[in-house]
Amino acid sequence: MKLRKSREFRKGRIEIIPMIDVMFFLLATFILASLSMQNLDSLEVNLPQGEAEKLSAKTPATLTVTRDGQIHINRTPVTLDTLADTLKPLLPESEQKLIVSADSDAPQGIVVQAMLRARTTGVQHFLIAVKHE
Fold first, then answer.
1. CATH tag, 61-128
2. What's the whole-number mean pLDDT along residues 28-54?
3. Mean pLDDT of the chain
4. Which of 31, 54, 65, 122 has the fewest CB atoms found within 10 Å of its own CB?
5. Where are the domains of the chain?
6. The model's pTM
7. Percentages (nearest 5) of helix, strand, coil residues in the chain
8. 64: which residues sit within 8 A by CB, 6+ positions away?
9. Are 20 and 28 in contact (CB under 8 A)?
10. Are strands 97-102 and 125-128 parallel, antiparallel or unpaired?
11. Residues 83-132 pLDDT 10s
12. Is 123 exposed, middle or buried (0-12, 13-18, 19+ CB in 10 A)?
């Protein structure tokens, strides 16, 4: 009579399907994390066409003027009277830059008035946002 061993030793196998599932989960996690790290402080406006350098420094505050003349500082609605008070705490002393993101159909007078009010807070450089062709 042949006696069998109580335990048979089998070779271990590496299951690849669970490993693929984990890799896709990690990929989706990193994609979502990188999308949430984008700085989206401006509203969606129809920017004018043009060529400009890419912004290399950390993103400064954003002044947005919409088509109907509404003014926003980093998505916070402001008026011309409250623009300086809202913008002053957002500007660090070392970088006095402001991104101007104005709709191409926005009234030019309101854009200029907003920029002049921003200049009273100490803004020295205006970066005009344009749409690359």
1. 3.30.420.270
2. 70
3. 80
4. 54
5. 61-128
6. 0.56
7. 30, 15, 50
8. 42, 43, 45, 71, 72, 73, 75, 101, 102
9. no
10. parallel
11. 888 888 887 766 678 888 888 888 888 898 999 898 888 888 888 887 76
12. buried
121, 62 Cβ separation under 8 angstroms: no
Tell me which range, 2-6, 26-30, 86-90, is most confidently predicted by mean pLDDT.
Answer: 26-30
What single letter denotes the amino acid at residue 133? Answer: E
Q: Fill in the amino acid letter for 128.
A: I
Q: What is the DSSP pairing of strand 97-102 with strand 61-65?
A: parallel
Q: Is 118 helix (H, G, I), strand (E, B) or coil?
A: helix
Distance from C-alpha of 27 to C-alpha of 16, rounded to nearest angstrom: 16
Residue 55 has pLDDT above 60, yes or no: no
